[in-house]
Amino acid sequence: MKQKNIPLEIIIKELGKHKRQTALLMFLILAVVLASLVPPQILRIIIDTKLTPRIVQGLLPLAIVSIGCLVLIAILDFIKSTLLILLGQNSVQNLRAEMANKLTRLPMDFFTTHTAGEVTSRFSNDAENVNTLFANGLVDLVIDLSKIIGIIISIAIFSVKLALLCLAFLPLIWGITKYFRAALLQSQMKNLAQLGKVNSHLSETLMNIHIVKAYAKETYMEQQYSKKLGDNFQTIDKVNFYDSIYSSIVTITKALLIALVVVLSCDSVNALGITLGMVAASLDLVSDLFKPIDALGMELQNIQKGVSGIDRVNQFLTLKEDKSKNEKLTLKEIMATNTISVAFHKVSFHYSDSNEMVLKDFNLEIPSGKKVTFVGRTGVGKTTLFRLILGLLEPTEGSITINGYDVYSIPNKLKRQLYGYVQQQFIPIKGTLLEQISLKDPEITEERCAQVLNYVGLEELESLYHEQINEQSTLSQGQKQLLSIARAIVCDPQFLLLDEITASLDSKTEKRLIDALDKVSKGRTVLSISHRKNTMLDCDLMVVIENGRISQWGKPDEIVS
To answer: Does residue 300 sit in the same domain as residue 352?
Structure first.
């Protein structure tokens, strides 16, 4: 079954929405081609009927017509370019909107295997290259091919032999063009992939600049960036080489054809049987013939950019979507018993970019209202386990259920009322302190946010409720963690997930955090993560994970350290 090409469908749909502009564009293309053929014909008339017999009368009207054609071409070309920009930008806007919608439908696994720079490159470079294909590639290609056909017809009017001679050169040019087309496409695809890596490295450096400076890794990051830039430079250099040598070959071919026409038209040979005016007009037409052929080089590069951009955008738009959600499911159905029980049924998982299993044959049942702590060294799959429980990742094998419902089928719109997830670090959004809690959900009132902040013990921040908060705000680590708890419980979920939230806290701050957790945990099912037994929160059941499996489980005092 042939795969859909969504970017082309969007462009065609956009052209269909603007039928008048599209029709005007086609008319302009035809008018530009016809107008460009008039000046050589006027040149033939001037030489054969005016200059050769030395008749100066009537030269001015012919000159005015010739100049008028050139002015008309410029005006038509301006209108054509304006239309192309408008239609092209509308198409790219719709394309980027579709890509943004697609981004919201992608599974979490996509974001674990693709960096922010790679994704950004799809929206910026690749989408813009699609516009390049439309605005500076295909349309100009159609115009130049139409000019070539028109010029051949005009030359045939003077001499069929000369037209056949020009046609004989076209297969040679076509062969050269075909070869460079394939080479340019390969180089352009490689260039776009490398640009994604360059953008990703730059984004990573800026996001982690504090760590880079703290550990004196400036030189290392610079070397890595220089290496990626060097690889990209070599690819771009290859693209430029193909483009420049193509133009040179076309220029040499043009010179050979003009020389051949001159030789065949001279008195001693006179193989073409044409007048002096026809020779002059033919030479002008031959020069004009190679202008569109020469322009094909740049258009070829633009087309290859556009084709590579379309391929990459289409790869993105045809990615597997997160379609396993049961949108008809309601919170009332899930919470029919007003309790939360969790069950793992032979769960195994590996990320799409690796065949190494993170979790293997994981089986566990957690009754409602219990506090369970997962313990294990870094990298054994604890955080991945939480992402699976949240339904952000889909198990490779097996299933996870809450009250009998597969977590991966639960709609995202219900998640916040069902789960309260506290991460290792508080991630602020752009907004006020109260908006950090509501996440700008219109259904969550400011009064509810203030109530929750007081509940977790952040009364001292009352004066900052309407202040803008960001990563540079002077909040302590303990306050940020308490904000994370407030954000998690603002919708009153019955299920809490705590991901190593006491890490890197001093004893005083840790006690304050634990006191807040004791309050918010009452009546809720609570799952927490800890690296070691001596740092875990108070719990009913402890589960020790080793090599992706449960090695021990039971009451904390029954577990062998």
So the answer is: no
